[in-house]
Amino acid sequence: MPTDRLVLRRPDDWHVHLRDGAMLKAVLPFTAHQFGRAIIMPNLKPPVTRTADAVAYRERILAALPEGHAFTPLMTAYLTDGTDAEDLAQGFEDGVFAAAKLYPANATTNSAHGVTDLGKIAPVLERMAEIGMPLLIHGEVTDAHVDIFDREAVFIERTLGPLLERYKALRVVLEHATTAEAVAFVREHAASGRVGATITAHHLLINRSHLFAGGIRPHLYCLPIAKRETHRVALVEAATSGEGPFFLGTDTAPHTVTAKESACGCAGCFTAANAMELYAEAFEEAGALDKLEAFASLNGPRFYGLPVNEDKVVLERTPSTTPDIVLTADGEAVLPFRSGETTRWTFAGAV
Ligand SMILES: NC(=O)N[C@@H](CC(=O)O)C(=O)O
Ligand SMILES: [Zn+2]
Ligand SMILES: [Zn+2]
């Protein structure tokens, strides 16, 4: 008997780009509708680097929240070569920062102010290890000579392995894992309890051939870029395993249609409008709907040392249609992932 109704503890999204201003107002309702909490990525222009920036950004998020939503934004600090370890640690201890984000300089959208050399932030990393502040990592090398499809695997070997060796107590999340190498690496470190990985819905559903199906598909372009099918299969296996280190992080990353459909289109898939429906589809295809709650609602809080959400939500096995387009108050348009298409599942809200 196929399951027609799935009840789970309210999920959290451990990797979200909410942006700011009119875009924030347009996209936040989608995330707040489905998720209890979300890790808010700090790659604004200018980036959220100091505790005071995060306090102000959190206020703008809460002000943009529609009535009746109990949503908690978990703020992060954008690490730069000049990060002030004192301010960062104070922000963590005061409960403003949940974690800090490492963008290797120029690895992805709005990462120009990122870290150019890990040696430059050694005191910051030491401090984070000491106080148990998680380091969230965009795990790709930026060396232009490394093939774009290999940048995550090379980062793991060249940078992530040595980083964990050097800082024995540092807790890290390899964000938006896209490769079999990432899955294997996370599993090798599972016993230590200090390595986690988020997995997006789109990387569970598409491989690199989808980027070029019938023509170039700018709305499927994100970083790290989707890899070949064997990697997608490895990610599905990891996400549906129920294992603690793997948890939900959509990496929903809205860009305007103009910015995406351009001679040099921006990286990012906007998956907030149908996030849980997409995950349900991927888990159903793997015959693992019974593992969705661990991945979406239990493993993340455990890694971050937070309680699980108290309330429950329902996913129904009835088709729903993803909005064609989302408009911002200043007239910009954003195209959701699978815009206008039907998904087999419907997120039906709280029980
Ligand atoms: N994932 C993406 O392709 N883009 C993200 C940045 C990021 O998470 O790397 C964005 O901010 O647009
Ligand atoms: Zn990233
Ligand atoms: Zn991201």
UniProtKB/TrEMBL annotation:
Catalyzes the reversible cyclization of carbamoyl aspartate to dihydroorotate. Pathway: Pyrimidine metabolism; UMP biosynthesis via de novo pathway; (S)-dihydroorotate from bicarbonate: step 3/3. The keyword Oxidoreductase does not apply. Residues 13-307 form the Amidohydrolase-related domain. This is Dihydroorotase. GO terms for molecular function: dihydroorotase activity. Its EC number is 3.5.2.3. The modification N6-carboxylysine is found at K101. Its cofactor is Zn(2+). The active site is at D251. Pfam families: Amidohydro_1. Belongs to the metallo-dependent hydrolases superfamily. DHOase family. Class II DHOase subfamily. Binds 2 Zn(2+) ions per subunit. The gene is pyrC. It catalyses: (S)-dihydroorotate + H2O = N-carbamoyl-L-aspartate + H(+). Keywords: Hydrolase, Metal-binding, Pyrimidine biosynthesis, Zinc. Zn(2+) 1 binds at H15, H17, K101, D251. Substrate binds at H17, L18, R19, N43, H138, L223, H255, A267. It comes from Azospirillum aestuarii.
